[in-house]
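Entry for magnesium ion complex. Fields follow.
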Amino acid sequence: MEMEMAEEIEEVGALTDGFHLVIDALKLNDIKTIFNVPGIPITDLGRYMQAAGMRVLSFRHEQNAGYAAAIAGFLTKKPGICLTVSAPGFLNGLTALAHATTNCFPMILISGSSEREIVDLQQGDYEEMDQLAIAKPLCKAAYRVLHAEDIGIGIARSIRAAVSGRPGGVYLDLPAAVIGQVMDARAGADSLVKVVDAAPRQLPDPQSVARALDVLKGAERPLIILGKGAAYAQADDAIRTFVETSGIPYLPMSMAKGLLPDTHPQSAGAARSLVLKESDVVLLIGVRLNWLLSHGKGKAWGNAPKKFVQVDIEPTEMDSNVEIAAPVVGDIGSCVQALLDGMGKDWAPPPSQWTAAIKDKVETNVTRMAPRLQNNNVPMDYHGALGALRTIIKERPDAILVNEGANTLDFARSIIDMYQPRKRLDVGTWGVMGVGMGTAIAAAVETGKPVLAIEGDSAFGFSGMEIETICRYKLPVCVVVFNNGGIYRGTDVNPAGGPDVATTVFVKDARYDKMMEAFGGVGVHVTSPDELSRAVNAAMDCGEPTLVNAVIDEKAGTESGRIGNLNPQSVVAKK
Ligand code: ADP
Ligand code: TPW
Ligand code: MG
């Protein structure tokens, strides 16, 4: 217990309650931002939090508050907190909790719940649900507090579970009765726990480091792949020094872009297929061999035998998809530093034949792309529109780019270069639509930097109502809706020819910009890359909430963007 807190309680017989113990426990652990939707039994908790100087941001839907908390966790290495009401509010937040767990982001979903006695006998309480049982399989840990004096321990456990080891989502169940419970203020203060060293460093076994270096030294065509775990670790200097000292080409996964600038001479981003196929030793740093990397095998990886070295904090990640020749288990900062220390003066850079072949491929691909990015076609295609936005990020490298959609996501990921760590936030491991506005809000709140959210029109629709939240808190967010009138394309027709439009098609010529105006923000309608560029620059200069409705050629996209191959095919039906 902190001394100051004890001294504050001067009055003999003073009381505290569950509300204030939750607040004191969070503040004691330096958690001061809450993403919430109010209602029974947590409305007053939000009010008292605000009164206690915490930043309490109210959303229009819990899922968006949850996505905000998840990405806040990624950006800060502290658990993002989402606060919801019982059953339906809890369930709305649960998608985001599962998303946080899947993405290894630290987050705590705190939900109010109904009376235990009534819930357990299923007697039909207000918003009755056995939330703890439902949350358990979807998160890293789930706890319930039944006595006010356990709130401090409950919150301490939740924080430690969220950030230690592989980070993830934690559920904390707070029954209404506990929130209202009263106890002696001094005993309450004594019950609080300040978490010491919540995410302890995990040093790698020196033998594992030596083994990894041996495998790397034997490589003729080595490759480093950086994942969002490497971005999360905030070991930016060590990673950059390691990559540069080793001379090994690297490939950043989507949210690891900018860890080193995408224009770095060792970046193999524009030669992805070549390096996956041709490399003989691959060093994975904070990245899983999941579907995003074709599970480390098959056509995408070519026929040449490959050895994998993997740096990860989670031991069971090793050999999850293919054999890992040299596992290095520990936190990324410590592991990368140990690799760097072990490289020694006699370290030889990779054969120049390999690095030159990659450079060649990168140059060819970049040169081929360049003219397409400068086209000023109306209606815009993805290249013309993203060419304009690419320049804006180049000129404003500290802005945060939020990105979701199918074609809008895939093209933006490959076209827009990133220059700084943790500036690109997107759909993550699941490729989930709907993270956009929650992510944009948390990014603005947590970093104070301007945010540019590039959204497919479908993607935007999943969380679009939160533009009211953006306007309410006057956040420097510029949303660009890539409006092609549909999911993937706006051109599909109903195969039955009936009155309903096709399943992937939206209202034609929708004016998303007018939604923003409804809440006092700036709405702009643009049809050319020049107009787009002007509108976004103006928004980023003034910092006012802005939505740019960018009309994209409805024929420009492809089914499912770049992952159309994952769609099952019918042998019976014809498209
Ligand atoms: P991407 O989606 O960018 O390919 P993944 O989410 O698949 O990346 O992989 C992230 C990996 O990083 C996870 O396996 C996770 O255990 C690991 N990780 C997260 N934080 C750390 C850390 N601080 N140290 C080591 N590994 C970490
Ligand atoms: C929660 C399936 C993947 S991409 C997408 C959907 C619905 C929208 C693509 O259209 P958009 O982009 O955003 O207009 P564009 O440029 O191609 O036109 N529900 C969830 N997540 C996913 N991934 C889907 C559905 C999907
Ligand atoms: Mg679309």
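NOTE: Residues 103-104, 166-167, 227-229, 232-233, 253, 255-256, 286-288, 290, 292, 312-314, 317, 331-332, 429 surround adenosine-5'-diphosphate (ligand 1) (CB under 6 Å).
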